[in-house]
Structure formats: structure tokens, C-alpha cells
Amino acid sequence: MTKTLTKKAEKSSGKNGLHATSIDIPSKSRVVLVDMLNQSLAETFDLYSQVKQAHWNVKGPHFYQLHTLFDDTASEILEYVDELAERATTLGGTARGTARMSADASTLPEYPDDIANGMDHVEALIERFALYTRLTRECIDKATEMGDADTADLYTEISRGVDKRLWFLEAHTQAAR
Fold first, then answer.
1. Interval 110-141: pLDDT, tens
2. Per the structure, how many domains does the chain have?
């Protein structure tokens, strides 16, 4: 069955793994961009699931505030999952976005399953958001180098949003003056 599915995918995707499109970005560039978008898709879906893990398991005196913050953050991240997947397919690629595909491809560290304290969740998420924002900015640069302003713009939008979410998280660790 796997051989049949692979042959069908090759037939519909063409020799370079892309579906036909009239977008004027060269196919060699689109292959690289789709790979990059799929890597980001994996990390974004992983980040989403880690924020939900914090949302479900947070405890402590700031429970409600953090529970709500984590849920709002997860909802925003989920929108980025959809945007990245749709951009990959717009460029003629195939989005690789199942939970197992994402877990296999993500470079984010695994979320600890032994924490409950709200501030421990905040610290764990700060670590992941800081890495994710760095990776996102690298993608802005790569898409710009490849001449794809639209993909660079998508990454810029994501960067703005996750920077803001990182700020929200870090504000919980900063002393009031």
C-alpha cells in the first residue's frame, strides 16, 4: 500500500515534488521554500501543543490568569499553523502537518511533563518561544534571499506575534519597579 501511495504522490507532484503552479518563483526555490515552511509547520504545531500542555496542567496562585494566557496564546499559534501549511501548498508543495510528522521533525525541546507550578510553565514556554522566534527570523532572511517577499511577509507577521507573546510571558518574570 505504501508503494502505491508513493507512486500516486510522485505522479501528482511531478519530478521535483511540486504540484504545477503558475506562481513565478523558480521551482528550485519553491522546493527549498516548501521544505522550510514544512519545518516551520512542524515547530509551530509542536509549540502549539506545548502551550496547550501548559494550559491544561498549570496550577498555583496565578492559575486563572496563566490558564487564560496560555489558551489565548495557543489559539494564536494555531492560526500560524494554518497559514504556514497553506503557504507551502500555495507554492506547489504538500503540507506535512500531522501530529506525528510534526513531532518527528520539530527541533524544539520536549516539554517537561513533571511541572505544575505556573511560573515553571512560564519559564519552560519562554525557553521555547525564544528559540522559536530566532528560527522564525532566520526564515524571514532565507525567504528574502530567495526572492519570496510573500513568504518573508508571512514569517514577519508570525515574528511580530510570537515576539509579543514572548513579551507577555517574560513580563511574569520581570520585577515591578
1. 999 999 999 999 999 999 999 999 999 999 99
2. 1
Q: Say yes or no to pLDDT of 9 above 90.
A: no
Cross-strand pairs, 117: 59
Q: How far is CA 79 from CA 64, 70, 72, 96, 107, in A?
A: 23, 15, 11, 16, 20
Question: For residue 34, what is the domain's CATH number?
Answer: 1.20.1260.10
In this predicted structure, what is the pLDDT of residue 47?
98
pLDDT average, residue stretch 80-91? 98
Among 99, 102, 115, 103, smallest CA distance to 54 is for 115
Distances (CA, A) of 103 to 15, 25, 92, 156: 28, 30, 23, 24
Strands annotated E in 43-133: none
Residue range of the domain that includes 131: 23-171
Q: Phi and psi (nearest 5°) for 91?
A: -80, 5
Residue 117's φ and ψ, nearest 5 degrees, are: -55, 135
Question: What is the mean predicted confidence (pLDDT) over 154-176?
Answer: 94
Evaluate whether residue 10 is within a structural domain. Answer: no
Residue 92 included in any domain = yes
Residues 6+ apart with CB under 8 A from 9: 94
The answer to whether position 5 is within a domain reads no
